[in-house]
């Protein structure tokens, strides 16, 4: 199984732990990991991990919660690396209307900058033949999802997007899928109170979704409440297979094919 979204460059993972974390993932049947940069200061860290470990690929982007402290011409941070075969996609980017605007910014100006950055991530992806990994989060409602979907709509004929850590109903997932996009599920799908996400995971057609950890966050049952790591992908995959009435091996085959296509993994 492939972990389609993790953050091996996170400060929650000490550098000396990485060999053991990757070995543990191998031992749990995880054949590939996509690690995502989210800010200027972790681009090199994630690139180095991808270059060091054959089973790791990197995505490069600016997270919406970092747009206020990122240079206006952020493209210059990413462009030199986008033709590297170990760079799998653009991201993590997106819209975050959950966290409050930082000091010196209004909600309106902060969200406008996020939308501008997201649109330019898509432009960069289109120019380099890559796809885009999107984060959305709201306090209430679905404004960030709705706004991100409309921006994706501008580019969907040339670029695919995955809406990662998908929390919503199938009606939202269907809107992404109808544009040729994907969604991906984290350990949330294993939680007892996650009926909506479980229903979505059951309803999505084959080839329309991936499995991820978002580690070091959102550990699935039976590790809920602990630091997450790529090895735990198997528990999320097993739960989705159960929901869909599939053998885990069949779900792995389907989601791995989807990952390899989206992230240009050989």
The domain count comes to 1
The CATH superfamily label reads: Metal-dependent hydrolases
Tell me the span between the first and last alpha carbons: 14 Å
Q: What is the CA-based Rg, rounded?
A: 17 Å
Strand content: 15-25%
Biggest sheet strand line-up: 1-2-3-4-5-6-7-8
Number of helices: 9
Distinctive features:
39% helix, 266 residues, 9 helices, globular, alpha/beta, TIM Barrel
Verbal overview:
- It is a single chain.
- By secondary structure, the chain is an alpha/beta fold.
- It has one domain (2-262): Metal-dependent hydrolases (TIM Barrel, Alpha-Beta Barrel).
- It is built from 9 helices and 8 strands.
- The chain has an 8-stranded parallel sheet with strand order 1-2-3-4-5-6-7-8.
- α4 (107-128) runs parallel beside α5 (143-155) and α8 (233-244) crosses α9 (248-262).
- The longest helix has 22 residues, at 107-128.
- The chain is globular.
- It starts with a strand and ends with a helix.
- The mean pLDDT is 98.
């Amino acid at each position: 199984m492939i972990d389609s979204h993790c953050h091996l460059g996170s400060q929650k993972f000490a550098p000396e732990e990485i060999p053991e974390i990757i070995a543990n993932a191998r031992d749990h049947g995880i054949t590939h990991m996509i690690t995502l940069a989210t800010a200027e200061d972790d681009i090199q860290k994630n690139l180095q991990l991808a270059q060091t470990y054959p089973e790791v690929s990197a995505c490069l982007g600016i997270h919406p919660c970092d747009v206020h402290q990122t240079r206006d011409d952020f493209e210059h941070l990413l462009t030199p690396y986008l033709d590297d075969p170990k760079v799998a996609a653009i991201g993590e980017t997106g819209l975050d209307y959950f966290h409050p605007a930082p000091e010196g910014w209004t909600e309106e100006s902060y969200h406008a900058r996020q939308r501008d950055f997201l649109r330019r991530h898509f432009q960069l992806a289109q120019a380099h033949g890559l796809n885009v990994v999107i984060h959305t989060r709201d306090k209430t409602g679905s404004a960030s999802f709705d706004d991100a979907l409309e921006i994706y709509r501008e580019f969907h004929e040339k670029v695919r997007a995955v809406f990662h850590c998908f929390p919503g109903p199938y009606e939202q997932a269907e809107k992404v899928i109808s544009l040729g996009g994907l969604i991906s599920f984290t350990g949330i799908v294993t939680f007892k109170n996650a009926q909506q996400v479980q229903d979505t995971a059951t309803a999505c057609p084959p080839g329309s979704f991936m499995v991820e950890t978002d580690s070091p966050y959102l550990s699935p049952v039976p590790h809920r409440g602990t630091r997450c790591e790529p090895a735990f992908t198997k528990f999320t995959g097993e739960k989705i297979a159960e929901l869909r009435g599939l053998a885990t091996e069949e779900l792995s085959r389907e989601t791995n094919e989807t990952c390899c296509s989206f992230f240009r993994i050989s």
